[in-house]
What we know:
Layout: H1 2-9, H2 12-41, H3 55-64, E1 70-72, H4 78-83, H5 89-97, E2 136-137, H6 147-163, E3 181-186, H7 193-205, E4 209-214, E5 218-219, E6 222-223, H8 233-236, E7 250-255, H9 259-276, E8 280-285, H10 305-313, H11 316-326, H12 332-377, H13 382-393, H14 400-413, H15 420-439, E9 468-469, H16 470-484, E10 488-492, H17 508-512, E11 517-519, H18 524-535, E12 540-544, H19 555-562, H20 565-568, E13 578-583, H21 596-602, E14 607-609, H22 614-624, E15 631-636, E16 643-644, E17 661-664, E18 669-673, H23 677-689, E19 695-699, E20 702-704, H24 711-719, E21 722-725, H25 733-744, E22 756-758, H26 768-775, H27 779-793
Parallel strand pairs: 1-2, 1-3, 3-4, 4-8, 7-8, 10-11, 10-12, 12-13, 13-15, 14-15, 18-19, 18-21, 21-22
Antiparallel strand pairs: 5-6, 9-16, 14-20, 17-19
Helix pairs in contact: 2-5, 2-11, 2-12, 3-9, 5-12, 6-7, 6-18, 12-13, 12-14, 13-14, 14-15, 16-22, 18-19, 21-25, 23-27
Amino acid sequence: MIKEKTNTTLTFEDFKIEVLxxxxxxxxxxxCSLLGRKEVLTGKAKFGIFGDGKEVPQLAMAxxxxxxxxxxxYYRDQTFMMxxxxxxxxxxxxxxxxxxxxxxxxxxxxxQMGGHFATHSLxxxxxxxxxxxxxNSSADISPTAGQMPRLLGLAQAxxxxxxxxxxxxxxxFSNEGNEIAxxxxxxxxxxxxxxxxxxxxxxxxxxxxVMSVWDDEYGISVHARHQTTKENISxxxxxxxxxxxxxxxxxLRVKGWDYADLIATYEKAAEIARExxxxxxxxxxxxxxxxxxxxxxxxxxxxxxxxxxxxxxxxCIRQMKLWMIAINIASPEEIEAIDxxxxxxxxxxxxxxxxxxIEPIVEEQKELVALLQKIGESSNNKETIxxxxxxxSGIKSPLKKEILVTARKVLRLILNENGKQELSQWITDYTxxxxxxxxxxxxxxxxxxxxxxxxxxxxxxxxxxEDTDGRMILRDNFDAIFTKYPxxxxxxxxxxxxxxxxxxxxxxxxxxxxxRVADVGIREATILGQxxxxxxxxxxxxxxIQYLDYLLYAIQIMSDDLxxxxxxxxxxxxxxxxxxxxxxxxxxxxxxxxxxxxxxxxIRGIHVLVPRNMTQAAGFYNSLxxxxxxxxxxxxxxxxxxxxxxxxxxxxxxxxxGVVETLKQGSDITLVSYGSTLRLVQQAAKELLExxxxxxxxxxxxxxxxxxxxxxxxxxxxxxxxxxxDEDVPGGASAYILQQIIEQQDAYNYLDGKPQTLTAKAHRxxxxxxxxxxxxPSAEDIFEKVYEMMNEVNPSKYPSLY
Length: 802
C-alpha cells in the first residue's frame, strides 16, 4: 500500500531516503534499549524499562503526528519521541541516569524513571508556548492505564476549540480543532477499568483520539489468556465499532512488524480522527519484547522455546530489514553499515551523557575532600577524618548522597573545633542547592500562583439582608464567570440540563450551550481526565464530582497525574484544573463522608479549599481563575438553601487562598474548624458564652495551603488553649491541622494545656438524622468538650458535667 501512495507523491529515491531515515531511527532506538539494560546491570542506572520490539509501529505513528497534536502514552514510546525529534540519544541516557539538569534530561530532570516522556508547554515565566507550532507529549506516569483519562481531555479540547467561539488566544492552542490526541498502551493494561471508562467516554463524546494498543501478548509474565477475554482486545471491543447513524469508534487492526501496512493504517486513522472527530482504536498485534518487561527480570523464565523463536523471527526491525531488501530499498551491506554506525553513535552518546552526569558530582566530591583535608589537619579526630576522606575519594562514581553523608558524619567529630562553622555552612549551602533539584515546583513558582491574587471583598447594597439562597450566589457567580472567561467550561453528572443537583448551575446550559455546561455519564475518573487534558491545552475547565465521597473514584488520577504534573515536569507543563464537589453533613454513608485526611495527603500539589458558605466558595472560583494552579473546592452540602447576602460584584470578589478568617474574638480557648462544622461551632460558642467561656473561632478556609500568615498561633498566644473540630475520622485531617499548628507554627510555646481534637467517629456516618448526630460532632459535643477542657483549668468555676 505504501508503494502505491508514495509513488504518486515521491520519487523512488525520495521514498528510499525516507525509509532509510526511519530504519536508522529504529535501530538507534534498539541500540539504546540494549545498551541501557547493560547500564542498569552494571549499576550506573537503577532501573530500566525500554521500548524495544515496538519501534516500527511508533515510526508509523510519528509520520501521522502533526504539530499541535498531543501524545498521552506509556513508557515504551522512546522510538516515537526520537522520530518526532523530541528525544536524542544523549537525553535518553541522561534520563536513565536520573540527571537533575533539565537541559540534560528535558523529560523530567531525573524525577521520573527513564522511558517517561514529556515536551515543554511553558516558557520560563510559566506562560504558554504556542502549542500549535510544536509536537506535544503530555508527561507520562507509570500507573497502568493512568494516561487514559487525560487522553480524553486532550482530545476533547480539539472539539471545544472547533465548536466554541470567542476563546482568547485560541490560535496558540489549536488550529480550528484539527489536532489529534494520540494514546498508547500495552495490551495487558487494557484490562484496567480506566481503559474501558475512557474508551466508552470517547465513543460518546466523539473526540479526535487515536488509541494504539501495543500487543505483545504478555503483561510482564502473564499471558493474554489471563488478561483479556478471547485474548484479543479489538475483538471484544467490536461493539464500539461505529455504524451508520451511530457514535462509536473506528477499529483498525495491523501487524506490528509490517512497516508498509502500519504507515497506511496510521494515515487512515489520522484522516478519520482529524477531519471528522471520530475516535479510532488501532490494535497493533504480533509485537515482541526482546528483553522482556524491564531490567528487573528475564523473559526466558516465562516464554517457551517456540515463542522465543517466533519473537526472533518476527522482530519488527528484522522484518523491516527483510522488506527493505526485498523491494531494493537497501542491500544487506548497506543495512549492516547503518547498524554499525548506530552502535557507535549510541555508545558515544552514552559516554557523553554519563560524563555530563558524573563530572559535576566529582567536582563536588573534590571540593568536599579539600575542605575536609583542611579541617582534618588541626582536628583532634584527624585519623578518623582521614579515613572518611579516603573512603570518599575512593568512590569512582560518587552520588550526591555519599558526599553529603560524609560531610554530616565528619561534622559530628568537630563540634567543638575551629572547622565546625565552615563545614556546617558548606553542608547548609550544599543541601539548599541540591534539595531544589528534587523538591521544586510542587506548586506554581510563577507570578500566577495563588498567592498573587489580591483579596476583593463582596460589595453589598446598604440595605442587604440575608435572604438569598446560597445556591443562587453560586449560580449568579458562575454566570459572571462564563461571561468573563469564554475559555471556562463546567461538566459533571447532572451539571447540565437540571443545573446540578443543588441548582447551582440553574439555567447555565440554556444560556451557554451544551459544550460549556455539560452533562456527563457516571464516570468520575474520566471526568477528572477531561479536566486535566483540557487544562493542559489552555482551557479553564471546572470538573464537577457530584459528592465528596465519589472523589474516591478519581483520587488515583488526582494523586498520580494532576497533583504531580508540575513537579514531574519541573514546571514545564501545567493543568490549572478546578475540581468542584460538595460534601459533609448529609444523611447516609455514601453522601456524608469527610475523608479529608486521605485527600490532603494523597493530592499534595493540588490546593484544597473548604469554604463554609457559598459566597466564600464563589470567591475561591474567582481567585482560582486568575491563577495557574489546580485546586479542589468542597462546597457545603447543607449550605445551598441557607440564606446569605446577595453581592453586587459577581465574578470580581475574591476569597484569599491560604488565609484564615476569625469569625469570633475570644479570650479563653481557640476553636479551629472549617466547612459545615463551623455552624455547630458558632452555636456551641454562643451557649458557652452563657456559662462564662469566651471562645475564639477560626475558619481555616483552606487546608492546602494552610494559614500562610500564621494567624492561628497568634490566637493561641492570646487564649493558651486549642481545640480542633473536624468531621473526618480520628487522626484524619485533625492530625494534619495539629501538625501545622503545633509543629510548623510552634504553638506549643503558648499552650497551657494539651491541644485536643474533636472528630467524627471512626466509622462512616450512619443513615438518618440520628445517624448523623451520633456519628459526627454535634453542638453538644463541642460544648461539653470545651467545658471539660476549662474544667481542668478551673474546676471550681466549671464543675464537672458528669
